[in-house]
Amino acid sequence: MEQFQWPNQGAARLICKSRWQETPDCISFTLTSEEQDKTFSFIAGQFVTLGVEIDGNTEYRAYSLSSLSNQTEMQFTVKRVAGGKVSNYLNDHLQVGQSLQVLPPAGQFHIEQPHTDKILLLSAGCGITPVMSMAKTLLADSQDRTEIHFIHAATCAEQLIYHAELQQMEQLHPRFKLDIMLEDATNTDYLEGRLTQAALANYCPDIASRTAFLCGPVGFMQAMKENLAALGMDMTLFYQESFTPAESTQPEVEDTKSKAAALAHATVFVPSFGTETKIVTGSLLIDALESAKVPVIAACRSGICGSCKCKVTNGDFTRTSSETLTEQEIAEGFVLACSCQIHSDVEVSLN
Ligand code: FES
After folding, report:
1. pLDDT by residue for the chain (351 residues), tens digit each?
2. Measured between alpha carbons, how far is 116 from 206 in angstroms, rounded to an integer?
3. Among the four 149, 296, 318, 324, which has the fewest Cβ within 10 Å?
């Protein structure tokens, strides 16, 4: 079968082939090409960026793939979240047969990163998607000998994403070990509680000799990273990903009057679009560009996907991520707008 050819620039249009309720607030979708006979190549752990039209605007968001590469369908799972514009839209409106814009798979959180022959896949909630793809990929390769310990945390049994599939993987593959911890383990054999350092050590006594791939909500990830370091893991063999937006560094000021007086302002100038936007210093560049209606794509808003790359040609800024940028691009002033705080008047180029 032929591989799907992504356009050299911009998004492809793919079709929603199927959708099903994964848990009460998560839906899984598959995407396929219009001809439905092309395969999609990616590295397990990578994400795609989806563009959906909501109220006349195209909103972009990144979703990790949970399926195997080189299939005619790509699978991802979307959790409904309070105020989640795109996630709720997809849950409510993306139906079988509808098309949407999709940017090619991307990301550095993937199974081809250097790893030892024993790995720990550690996730919570919807963070399971990329590590599920990694597990499936390693198990699908009969030559591969990697021992996989898959530890997943969720609130309760009904919130377990891919539960039946995980149980089946454990039954079929002696080199796949599954442990699940639930905050409420009523009517299950799983342990109840939170994944503490002691719980991790108990589940996985050889944790220090493993390579870890971690994905989940930001608080969970911070705690797990500290736990793994404290348990002696070699942190050069630790990989993580979380789509959690960066925050601006605007100072907190109490009342509106003193706020106006206290906050310094700067201007974001984009010559190619003829826009000038006044912002409070410390604001994120992406917010300034979006309020000026400059057509910049911000898919992950977390400094991971690289879609919001642009160049600051003049002025002061700081970065909280330069994930997808090369050393040369960094030296030349390229930034990820979602992870770039502005500290003076700046001039920006989108090319
Ligand atoms: S939106 Fe993904 S890196 Fe900025």
Report:
1. 899 999 987 889 999 999 999 999 999 999 999 988 999 999 999 999 999 999 888 888 899 999 999 999 999 999 998 888 899 999 999 999 999 999 999 888 999 999 999 999 999 999 999 999 999 999 999 999 999 999 999 999 999 999 999 999 999 999 999 999 999 999 999 999 999 999 999 999 999 999 999 999 989 999 999 999 999 999 999 999 877 666 666 655 555 555 555 568 999 999 999 999 999 999 999 999 999 989 898 888 888 888 899 999 999 999 998 888 999 999 999 999 999 999 999 999 987
2. 12
3. 318
Distance (Å) from CA 63 to ligand 1 centroid: 12
> DSSP per residue over 178-227, as a string?
EEEEEEE-TTSSSEES---HHHHHHH-TTGGGSEEEEES-HHHHHHHHHH
| CA–CA distance, 336 with 288 (Å, rounded to integer) | 13
Contact in structure between 296 and 270 (CB atoms under 8 Å): no
Position in ligand 1 atom list of the atom nearest CA 62: 2
Which atom of ligand 1 is the closest one to the Cα of 308?
4
From ligand 1's centre to the CA of 269, what distance in Å?
A: 20
Mutate-to-test residue for ligand 1 from 48, 244, 285, 304, highest number of ligand atoms within 8 A of CB:
304
Mutate to test the pocket of ligand 1, among 305, 320, 340, 341 (most ligand atoms within 8 A of CB): 305
Block residue for tokens 């808003």? 301
305 Cα: distance to centroid of ligand 1 (angstroms): 5
**Ligand 1 centroid distance, CA of 309 (Å):** 7
306 lines ligand 1 (CB under 6 A): yes
Delineate the domains of the chain, giving CATH numbers in brackets: 12-106 (2.40.30.10), 118-241 (3.40.50.80), 256-349 (3.10.20.30)
Counting Cβ atoms within 10 Å, is residue 338 exposed (0-12), middle (13-18) or buried (19+)? Answer: buried
